[in-house]
Amino acid sequence: MSVILLILPDFLLIALGWLLLHRLGFDRTFFDGAEKLVYFVLFPALLFHSITRTPLSLGNTTVLMAATIGVMLGGIVLAWLGRLIVRPDPAAHASVAQCGFRFNTYLALSLAGGLPWPGAQTTMAVLVGFAVPISNIGAVHALASRHGGNALREIARNPYILATLAALACNFLRVPIPHVLDVALGRLGACALAIGLLCVGATLSLRGGRAHAPLMAWMVAAKLVLLPPVALILAWALGLSAGERLVLVLFSALPTASSAHVLAARMGGDGRLVAVTMSIGTLLSAVTLPLWLDAVT
Hints:
0% strand
């Protein structure tokens, strides 16, 4: 299957989300409720279901955890290098730094499900589960250091982390999941991807941010262009299989999470600047993702 055809359905859903909000009469309240449903119910169900579907070994999971930590730390380092290279306003950098290492979880699981490897979605779910606390620590710490906030509290109550820990525990302990519950979780997970991508489209905005164009350009380039080679080096160093390498590179090349602007605004940062940076990265990833996937396959 062409890589373009792999990513096209997801970007069509993103485009539909934008049309629903801006052209077809759906209001922001509708998408606020949808985002809340995905965040607290649908996506945790998807993570739990994906991770418990395939038995994991401790050794393999440890290697995936090391790869995830390496990619996330690489992204954080690239984001903070922007302060030395671009010399931006410190407050603006604190808000937008997360765009250099946070990732869109909806695209992650959706695209992984279409990869030509049976274990791709399970592997991606494990990567996402390990990466969520690291990304939250990086994003919240940067904002908290300038605007106040409790990073540990944000992480401890994150539903993605709780779902991942529960799923890994059930997997390693071989706890049987009742068939009825497994089917229900699978159906909730199927809803998560479609609704989540619609919400991504509704958050797209290109208004504002011109005064910080160099900072935005650096963060987008760091996430979409500079971080995937780091993932390739890590995959080689850790001896990952071809399928695992493909998933890791896809993970590293994902655009920023659509919720990044919400976190920035909630913690006193520049939410509009983050929204513009996230939007530009999401649109450009339609070009860069196929290139990276083609390069790996």
